[in-house]
Specification:
Helix content: 40-55%
Shape: globular
Oligomer: single chain
Largest sheet: 9 strands, parallel
Mean pLDDT: 97
Radius of gyration: 19 Å
């Protein structure tokens, strides 16, 4: 298993995202992932930088660590032909260190263009078309496409990395899992969905990497760490069917009024007990995940988390999971 460092654009100023990853690379994280949002989940998170500008800076500021979007939605806010161009450019700038992680998106970020929010069935149709367009453009030829949802007229990408940018696809259910098995080089999920992993592997994804992510709230005082997790990550308890539908930070705030700190702590490892973190990762390993990224809650807690990860967490993870 490999272990990654998550850059959360929704909670961290853009310049700090760059300095955080430089430091994470130095202490030995295996790879990195970065979110792609227009809005933060909660107003208190307070940030939401344009990830593609940040990725350009990351590609130049780091030397070895792989980069990955976790995840980009190519169905509304971005046209898939433009996503392909952006991803190819980052692939060139990073000298082949970039993976394009894709997902079907959330109302939170996509409603801004004023086209409404389609049903999940329509979103999956759009997602499938978008991935086909992106893969064709990564081939380097002119692409014409006439689908139900997208049209591409004589598009061509001129700056491509030596090898096509790998494509990761997020999946939380069987339909998305089958789609990922058909089109993706990498499966992505933020839940330990072992049944989806098995489906992905059975339908064409055998031997391909499976990426997950765990939100964590490190701190030497467990209660303080738990309160911090509740303050900044309470939105994450709603589940994806809710999180994909709510339109704004104020709606997420309203939906979490009854969420308790102990509810958040059930899903977010808190404090500094390494064994607790190891047991959480074990659940993902048992579900078939090969890569696990850690998303430390709070921009002001990143340095403390990295120091602890270097001294305790990463050595313990590598001893247990190899």
């Amino acid at each position: 298993m490999e272990f990654g460092y998550t850059l959360l654009c929704e909670q961290t100023p853009p310049r700090q995202l760059v300095t955080d990853l430089v430091a994470a690379e130095e202490i030995g994280f295996d790879y990195s992932v970065i979110s792609d949002h227009y809005f933060p989940w909660l107003e208190e998170l307070g940030h939401s930088a344009y990830v593609w500008s940040v990725l350009g800076a990351l590609a130049q500021a780091t030397d070895r660590i792989p980069l990955m979007t976790f995840v980009t939605c190519p169905i509304m806010r971005y046209h898939p032909a433009v996503v392909a161009q952006k991803a190819a450019t980052v692939g060139v700038l990073s000298e082949g260190r970039f993976t394009l992680g894709l997902g079907a998106g959330e109302n939170l970020n996509e409603h801004i263009i004023g086209r409404g929010w389609p049903s999940v069935d329509v979103r999956h149709e759009m997602f499938a078309e978008a991935v086909q367009i992106i893969k064709e453009l990564f081939g380097g030829d002119y692409v014409n496409y006439r689908g139900r949802h997208f049209t591409v007229d004589s598009a061509k990408i001129y700056d491509l990395p030596d090898e096509p940018v790998p494509i990761g696809m997020a999946a939380f259910g069987s339909r998305a899992g089958r789609l990922a098995a058909q089109y993706a080089d990498v499966l992505i999920s933020d839940q330990p969905v072992g049944d989806v992993v098995s489906l992905f592997q059975k339908d064409g994804g055998a031997g391909k990497p499976v990426y997950g992510q765990i939100p964590v709230s490190y701190g030497t005082d467990y209660e303080e760490a738990k309160q911090n997790a509740h303050r900044l990550w309470k939105f994450g308890t709603a589940g994806w069917k809710v999180m994909a539908e709510l339109p704004g930070p104020v709606n997420f705030e309203a939906s979490t009024k009854t969420v308790r700190p102990e509810d958040v702590a059930e899903a977010v490892p808190c404090g500094n007990d390494v064994n607790h973190y190891l047991e959480t990762v074990q659940q993902w390993a048992d579900a078939g995940f090969t890569h696990m990224s850690f998303c430390q809650v709070g921009a002001d807690r990143q340095q403390d988390f990295r120091d602890w990860a270097k001294a305790e967490l990463l050595p313990a993870l590598r001893e247990r999971f190899g």
